[in-house]
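Posting here for the record, re: (2R)-2,3-dihydroxypropanoic acid.
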Amino acid sequence: MRIPSRKRCERLGARGGNSHRTATSIQWRRTFPQKRKQLTMSKPRVFVTRKIPAAGLDRVLAACDADVWPDPLPPPHEVLLQRVAGCEGVLTLLTDKVDVEFFEAAGPQLRVVSNFAVGCNNIDVGEATRRGIRVGNTPDVLTDATADMAFALLICAARRIVEGQDFVRRAQWKTWEPLGHVGADLIGRTIGIVGMGRIGYAMATRCRGGWGMQVLYHDQCASEKAEQFLLARRVDLDTLLSQADFVSVHADLNDTTRGMFNAEAFRKMKPTAIFVNTARGLLHVAADLYQALRQGWIFAAGLDVTDPEPIPMDDPLLTLPNCVIAPHIASATVSSRNGMADIAADNLLAGLQGQPLRCWVNPL
Ligand code: DGY
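Prediction output follows.
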């Protein structure tokens, strides 16, 4: 995730610096250190692994004895393990690994892990469930923003927009070229959606409603809604790969989906196809995608996610003009990030009270 500038933070409502520790409260703590201890003892201890928008953070600060990691980069894993020790709740990001080691370090009093993301592949949810720890996530509020991003990447890759911008900035633009910068048409083509959940459906809606595309989808469950309203057709993966003009992946990352877009899959796609991934970088095999783009097995790709993140500057994908890469920003809109903060705070506070979570990944 990009580090928000001060201006963006203000717009998002996040507080800058350590301003949640107000001058009055600091003064009060200096004067009455024991009272402060008594006071905070009644509040649950939580660790918040990064500053999140005030839409959620303010309520966490008001209700909890909260330790908020102040840096723009995530806490190193060893530091995370130290900071969660003794906490009853932790508000995590997708960059924090929540595994057995984490749960052991936190201790048996840990009641809730509230993830500031819809995807929970950073969390060992099975282990949390075995330990009776509630896990929350932040769906819905980022659906449109993520589908918009998927479509933006599709159109950027199809119309070679980033390549065009680089051309301009390198002072290579000499004239209007009848044969130059020719990209792919979108109208009336076929979109293949892998994972017809909320975001897949929202992407398919844009493709169908705005660009009149046929919709193919691959999912373990049928989507009556997509079939009824978008005339979508559920097909096996091979059919989707071979028939779709564009393939957009919206699947969860798990043991069955990890690496599903590999050399074999890219070879089944059309040489004119465009691959879009706004879900998780590990769904595609980066080295195979590089070959597919370099050798012309497919036309282009648009990625909001990579493996690892951030993508190393010597990654060969960065050398390709037909690969558009954004820094995992699909949910980075004001309403999505505020909505995520609101749900993440609700989940945390509900979990601390032993209540059902607003968005509960592992109902216990
Ligand atoms: C998520 O929520 O899982 C996204 O990847 C980040 O918003």
